[in-house]
Write a structure and sequence with these properties.
This protein is α/β, with parallel strands linked by helices. The protein has 2 domains: 3-160 and 346-371, Rossmann fold; 172-343, Glycogen Phosphorylase B (Rossmann fold, 3-Layer(aba) Sandwich). It is built from 14 helices and 14 strands. It is globular.
């Protein structure tokens, strides 16, 4: 039995694949400690996994603003000391980082202790942590077709974001009933990501009555701390009640995506991976201020592969028309679902765990893994 440290805190997009990896490692008889941040979203998401071991580490996001930069560097120094102490206490055989500000301290501490380090980038534009730390890693996983020129080809592997075991498509009727929705009416689910999306929440507030008038139920996950109106019961144009739900957080993602005819979502890589796994068509609205504009790249690839369409935030005035055009077009939705099923080809979490087991079994295995790098 081997023990691994997995750095995956800061956002749901980092934490969810970390949990997925830990699930597979545990199923194979290994153990893992997941390093998470002090953020509220991390604390909320881990409530569902009491059987796993989490360690909350210091740290804050990077910023070029002088005061924020000093605060970040001080926090990262504290995190580095925390990680070195954790390595001594837990004696891991390997380190896995999923990017974000929680990855740098554990990667540096891991290399200091001469441990193998594996990094995974979910977005189609590699983030700062992966770009800067990639040269220290034994293996770096990137989305299919993405390149990172600074790294040697022998260290690169391709794998989509790992998806938690619970994220599987179920009966839409059962999912709607479990969520308190009418199983016979169309359902639009709006997701702003773990941090919330003010622009999408505002759109939901402004259009909830119009959607009800067309017979569309709305289930809006606003994000923690984003505030929202209470769940509503409205009258449709034929004077029948219809529900509109607003919740700050949901840990029933599989039910939500199974219940939905259509999803409106930000374009985080983790959300897209779950849409693909549940075969749920989507309208993606990339966050314009995402680092290196990575959400636009994620959304463009999703659209090119036939999973749905992209609407830019500056064009939100057109979103209502796009929603109504798609949600009642059963033929097109069926086509999207078929394309999404085709996109979910590889079991990325199994690929990663296979590689980790080889990597830590003997030094010679690292050469074997490198020779099998995806092309």
């Amino acid at each position: 039995m081997s023990h691994f440290l997995i750095s995956c805190g800061g956002t749901g997009g980092h934490l969810s694949p970390g949990i997925a990896l830990a699930e597979e490692l545990t199923a194979r008889g290994h153990t893992a400690t997941l390093l998470i941040s002090q953020k509220k979203v991390d604390a909320r998401l881990i409530e569902k996994y009491p059987q796993m071991h989490f360690a909350r580490m210091p740290g804050s996001g990077f910023s070029w603003r002088p005061i924020s930069l000093v605060r970040c560097l001080f926090a990262q120094f504290r995190a580095l000391r925390f990680c070195r102490r954790l390595i001594r206490q837990t004696a891991p055989v390997g380190i896995v980082g999923f990017g974000g500000f929680t990855s740098a301290p554990i990667v540096l501490a891991g290399r200091w202790s001469r441990l193998p380090v594996v990094l995974h980038e979910s977005n189609r534009v590699p983030g700062m942590a992966i770009r800067w730390l990639g040269r220290l890693a034994t293996l770096v996983y990137l989305p299919p077709g993405v390149l990172l020129p600074r790294l040697q080809a022998s260290s690169l592997r391709y794998a989509a974001p790992p998806v938690r075991r619970e994220i599987v498509r179920t009966s839409s009727v059962e999912a709607r009933l479990a969520l308190g929705l009418d199983p016979m009416r169309k359902v639009l689910v709006l997701l702003g990501g773990s941090q919330g999306a003010s622009a999408l929440n505002q759109w939901a507030r402004e259009h909830v009555k119009a959607l009800a008038h067309e017979g569309v139920q709305l289930y809006c996950v606003t994000g923690l701390g984003k505030g929202a109106p209470e769940s509503l019961t409205l009258k449709t144009k034929i004077d029948e009640p219809i529900s509109a739900m607003f919740v700050p957080f949901s840990d029933r993602v599989a039910q939500l995506l199974s219940a939905a005819d259509l999803v409106v979502s930000r374009a985080g890589a983790g959300s897209i991976a779950e849409l693909i796994r549940c075969e749920t068509p989507a309208i993606l609205v990339p966050f314009p201020q995402s680092a290196d504009d990575h959400q636009r790249a994620n959304a463009a690839y999703f659209e090119q592969q036939g999973g749905g369409v992209v609407v830019e935030q500056v064009a939100l005035a057109n979103l209502s028309g796009t929603v109504l055009d798609l949600i009642f077009n059963d033929g097109l939705l069926s086509k999207y679902r078929a394309q999404l099923k085709a996109m979910d080809r590889a079991d990325s979490v199994a690929v990663m765990v296979n590689d980790l087991e080889q990597l830590v079994s003997s030094p010679a295995c690292s050469t074997s893994i490198s020779s099998n790098s995806a092309t």
